[in-house]
Amino acid sequence: MLTLMVTSSPAHAAPPLQSYKIDPDQISVSGLSSGGYMAVQMQVAYASRIMGAGVLAAGPYLCADGNVLYATTRCLNSGVSFLPSPDYFQELTEELSDAGRIDPTADMAGDRVWLFSGGADDVVLTPVVDRLRAFYESFVDAGNVVYLRGQIPEAQHAMITDDYGKPCGFEGGAYINDCDFDAAGALLKHIYGALQPPVEAPAAHLKLFDQSVFSGTDSLAAEGFIYVPSDCESGNALCRLHVAFHGCRQNRNVLGDEYARHAGYNEWAEANDVVVLYPQTESATVNECWDWWGYTDAGVEYNYATRSGLQMAAVRALIGRVAGEPQSSYCGADSNAAHAAAGRAYTQIGWWFWTYYYASGSDYYLGALGSTSTMLKERRPGYWEPVLSCP
Fold it and tell me: Among candidates 362, 357, 365, which has minimal Cα distance to 377?
């Protein structure tokens, strides 16, 4: 998973992303490796919106502490003994919550969390996932957290499936391994409760969509995938929404639709009216990974893991479109404090404990006074910039 590849995107534009009848209380996330870290970030930052998470081979929120060296050592397979205590990550999370940069941590209490660590995984070691469990148990009701720790001794670093992919102990390839265990089904059943058995997923129900209009960063691909079950397409059902994040070296430029088609989600989705969104990174990013250490931060501490992070805001906008949320076209003047309270801006504590204000999405500096009036315009979902006037 550590090879850098740059591939140009197709010249033609994919169809626009459509909206469906989605139950707003049934939106969840999951992911493998960097996708697991991204799932954790989304679930924590948008705790009022995300009700469950399934995570394979990833560590706690802010594990990398905004440092690529930590990301590639203590949060993977070396230097694990130097991982800070669970209290450290809990305190960082509380600080971001108090600053209004992520949702209140109390919103996580009733969430459903499913965790997995393969017994033979030598990319993200089990003690890293142990720390993730401890992190969640600081915020989530203990009975809602399930952790499969080494229960498949031969499982390597991969998306674990019942009957697709390389042998269970293989490392590499598409990082999808056949371990006679359906991880996608297991995590969906824990998040959503009793489900109907999986059925055939029609190939045509997995679609490309234009992802570019939601992105304020070149780290996301121009196109993404979405699986839409029959009854969700027709509007005959109130559906759930699940966001599945691929790992490093698993995006469309590397695997085509292999991850979106064979990770195991779609058959459960078809049987249970779950729309599955597969956002995609761009190959120009580091190893096609999601940003869980700050490569999109532009110097703003921890921004990558908050509501104003470029990838975070883009995925949140994707969720809003699929769920049919009203699309904001805000443009107006208000105090910096009011912008922050509404999510149009965020704060950061700096020298001498001054509070600094930044526009969400763009990270434009707005000043150090909450009373200062600033005119902001939403250029695209989740992305605000200061302007001189509004139409």
Answer: 362
**DSSP-derived pairing of the beta strands 145-149 and 52-56:** unpaired
SS3 state of residue 331: strand
The tens digit of pLDDT for each residue in 207-227 reads: 999 999 887 778 999 999 999
Measured distance CA(324)–CA(346) in Å, rounded: 25
Q: What percent of the chain has pLDDT over 70?
A: 95
Give the Cβ contact number of residue 240 at 10 Å: 25
Pairing assessment for the beta strands 345-349 and 331-335 based on DSSP bridges: unpaired
Identify whether the C-beta of residue 125 lies closer than 8 Å to the C-beta of residue 94.
no
Return the CA Rg of the chain. 20
The distance of Cα 251 from the centroid of its chain, to the nearest Å, equals 14
Q: How far is CA 37 from CA 32, 107, 121, 216, 368, in A?
A: 8, 19, 16, 20, 31
**pLDDT tens string 231-260:** 999 999 999 999 999 999 999 999 999 999
What tokens does 95 get? 């600080």
pTM of the full structure: 0.87
Residue holding tokens 């999109």?
296
Give the pairing of strands 166-167 and 145-149: unpaired
Query: Could you list the active site residues?
Result: 33, 121, 157
Contact predicate 183/168, CB 8 Å: no
DSSP annotation of 278 reads: E
Matching residue, tokens 């729309």:
275
Place of tokens 């404990």: 353
